[in-house]
Predict the structure.
Amino acid sequence: MPSKRSKPVDSSDPNSTERHSTNKRLRLDTHALSEKSTNNLLLRSSVTSAASQEKRSALEGDRIPITLDDFPSGPDSPFETTFDKLRLSVIATLERLPIAQDHPDLRKVGRLKTSEDVSKLLSTRGWWTPSLVNVFADSPVATMSLSSSVGSLNPPCALTERLFRQGKFAHLSSLCITGTPLSHLELAHLRLLPALASLNLASTNLSPLHLLHLVTHAASLRDLNISSNPSITDDARVPLSALTALTSLYLRDTSITIPCLRLLVYALPLACRFITLPQGCLHYLNTRSKRYCVDIPIGYVQDPRDVPNMTLSNLKRNLELHKAANGDIATGGTKTEVAERLMGVLCGRVADGRIARRVGRG
């Protein structure tokens, strides 16, 4: 069968040359579109299974998808995991975020392998927004830091209110919100986090009343940082005593005093350590030897429970031992007065020893 040949251009026809040129441009445009479509298809499938990833890497030059258009969508999408959908949502949101859309770290999102990795990047860069917090509501993410993301565009309430959802953020165990004042409402937004075990609220202008909102986490909260909140006074003993699972407590630059700590060491679990303390408390512990006899020798009473059975002469003898360390301790008075005085000294000594051991100083 004779092959079809292109009709020769008739130079005498003024429209023939124009038609030929138009047809040529159409063929070139069609070829360019076809090539672009092929390249896009390769790029969009760059985050599917590991096996096909290796094959495509050689063809694509190891290109990394960074925009939502780089990925397929719809019913025929090859993505099958929840993480793939989460990553796409994060990329789409960051592309509209002015501080992130031109940042080189935006490309890293396409390389990350877990929701935890994505959360860490968002926390480090301060890219959390209310919509991004929503994206992670059903994810297995365990750690989130909102500290660097709080600002004029993201007031704390806009972020914390997204955490206040029943049955969501079931795996979120570590939360950090520091360096910004928090209201009672914003602390209340944290009440529905079922797995919250570590909470950092340093420098958030907290008071003892704010801490009442944390009692809902009494069974899960193990690590609590409320440092640099000078409005936290000895009244914080009540909500703190309710946190029966605590193992680490940070109290630096609060207004808590030794009398409060003496009560807390009996209320908190034996495993709870005071990782940091106010400077005044540390000074007191370091100068205990000037307040009473720390190392009581054999033959003198150490247990306050033995005091009621002691004679007046023996009571005074024991007080004299402590007066040698602290001249302000009086040794005179009735048996009841002397007994109460010795009881106070011994009870303080025992409690201070417990505090010192919990900060590794005893």
